[in-house]
Specification:
With 77 residues, this protein is mostly helical. It is globular, with a radius of gyration of 12 Å. The chain has a single domain, classed as lambda repressor-like DNA-binding domains (434 Repressor (Amino-terminal Domain)). It is built from 5 helices and no strands.
Length: 77
């Protein structure tokens, strides 16, 4: 794996951490979040572990379900 791919992996892990933190802060289970978005609960887990690279549309769906903007969702600082 080259350095560029490692950087993207860090970003996916950061996104996953943000999704998990936000989901837990609003007291949603992975299953309930998945239901609100219309996806399978295992996909939420894969996002949270940085195993999947969600599309922009999926980021919109996550942000709407979590009641935050996409900007807030992808702001890792």
């Amino acid at each position: 794996m080259n350095n560029e791919n490692l950087n993207f992996k860090k970003e996916l892990l950061s996104l996953g951490s943000k999704v998990r933190y936000t989901r837990e802060s609003v007291n949603l289970s992975q299953e309930r979040l998945a239901e609100k978005i219309g996806i399978h609960r295992t996909y939420v887990g894969m996002i949270e572990r940085g195993e999947k690279n969600p599309t922009f549309i999926m980021l919109l769906r996550f942000s709407k379900a979590l009641n935050i903007s996409v900007t807030e969702l992808v702001n890792f600082k």
